[in-house]
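Dear colleagues,

As part of the handover before I leave the project, I'm documenting each prediction I ran so the next person doesn't have to rerun anything. This entry is a single chain, and its sequence is reproduced below.
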Amino acid sequence: MARKLGCCTWIFGDQTLAKTAHLIKEAGLDGVELFGDWKSIDAKEAKKVLDGNGLEVFSITPADADISHPDKAQRLAALDYYKGLADFTAALIAPMFCMHGQVGRIRPVSSQKEEDALLVEATAQICALATANGLNVAFEILNRYESHQIRTVAEGLNLLKEVGANKLSLLADAYHMNIEEADPAAALRTGGSLIGLYHAADSNRCAIGEGHTEFASQISALDEIHYNGPIIIETAVPGADPFNTDKGAGFRDILFQQLVTSKKELRALST
């Protein structure tokens, strides 16, 4: 089946949303996963820009917020961020926002057991914020080099069970699964109806077809589990510092070509 295609806006760095939206539309995509910088972006203005480019808002991706830190003040600040994110998502009339912990924190400050319990508690509170706004939440599964919590679909399913929120699903990412899952397609089938969102980038985080990820089996698995959501492309330009999208002069031109290439490859897999 031909699913809608979108991309994350954060990959374009500090470029204005108007310029980013124009490039995404020119690449032939259907929509975006908008970066949730709700303190700096007016929701009505963002919606006007995206609507003007014919782009749907599929989801909102969060900024870093340490929801499982043992320091209570840090957790409360993180929860305050997610309250604003839920309000921002509702104002955009988007169906869901995503969540994760502090990207780059790869070990516990206190203990794994304590922080896993804090993660469950915070996730339940964030889901309550979503429910109050009529929204869904997708918990993003990250690899071991970006997080010490929830690195596989199996771990994600256990989190969903412990939280017990019916608005909560999993965000499976082909790039992260390439590192953590023995069989990414099988992991998607295991997730089944609880896969709420899917991100795509190749094994080197470049355009689809530029690495060694076997996407045909993953797309087939998405068909098997009746995943009807969009495919969100989240590529990056090669270079040092994976947490900084700006790789120097011309990096946005490379990103644009990655989107065009990825769209072509995904459309070919859907025919």
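The chain has one domain: 5-269. Residues 90 and 134 are 8 Å apart (CA to CA).

All the best with the project,
I.
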